[in-house]
Amino acid sequence: MTETKFTPRVFSGIQPSGNLHLGNYLGALKRFVDMQGPEMETVYCMVDLHAITVWQDPKELAHSTRELCAGFIAAGIDPEQSILFNQSQVPEHAQLAWIFNCVARMGWMQRMTQWKDKAGKNQQNASLGLFAYPSLMAADILVYHATHVPVGDDQKQHLELTRDIAIKFNHDYGVDFFPITEPVIEGAATRVMSLRDGGKKMSKSDPSDMSRINMTDDADTIAKKIRKAKTDPDALPSDVDGLEGRPEARNLVNIYAALSDQTVEQVLAEVGGKQFGEFKPMLADLAVAKLSPISTEMARLMGDQAEIDRILDRGAERAREIAAPILSRTYEIVGMVGAGRA
Ligand code: ATP
Ligand code: MG
To answer: Which positions does the motif 'KMSKS' region occupy (predicted)?
Structure first.
């Protein structure tokens, strides 16, 4: 098979499933901003179809979608330079996902740890959408022929599945049509952990608000959550090896490193030997300094919802210009009559 050259293009998404938090910011949003530039087209999405794989109150979903859009812009995404939109306004995602539902195998989906974590013990009562989530995610990415996908570490397995779907589709139909996507999982905080439990990732859907720092938290709340964050009684080590077996300490150091754009080694050279009583206020000051300008700007943008809706409409139009011909060509490859005539 000949190697097709795909134009480099970045795609990623965030669910409007609750409050944007520090893990989303460091693992995803901040990286999205880093990748925005003249060299690559960047496509960023509020994945509302993913959000409803678990119950969402309709009013809250609409609010979270707009607030997430405000979060993207406040963090530095320029809606002129990047394509910024919500998933449900581009029906090609769901249409390609159906094709991929017919490519992906049950066994592949059953191995997904996000499915196992989110469905928990009650798989029989989980939605079919939650099970099929990774197939829709593959469609989100591949409907743009995206080559690079910045995500947090928890999405690594879903990106491997995306590659498997592209490979199987290309193989089954004898084409070289879908690119084999590169995950971009980089930085000091690719997996920010819960502040209450160093073994669990920070999540929008964690019932405890004390487990995460929300982008909309005020300075006092951020300081309180960091002060109460679970730690161990020892002082901070001076090198990375000293973080072994200390997940909570590692988490706070990783957060400090990512927020200050330093490596973990650099941070430990500075704070090694300090007790948490001294380190936590340093971390709180840094988090407030970095996050409060973003939350202030988010609140300002939320004051003009009509403008947010216009940005999303325009983004969806631009997204469809890329997605529609790729879906149409997919239908043609699969043998669907009428495809390609539009
Ligand atoms: P939910 O609990 O509803 O799944 P979430 O907090 O996991 O929400 P998502 O919308 O699923 O957020 O993920 C958006 C992006 O943020 C993804 O790229 C994901 O990898 C990243 N991300 C989520 N949680 C973390 C985390 N704790 N640390 C680093 N990155 C994260
Ligand atoms: Mg998630």
So the answer is: 201-205
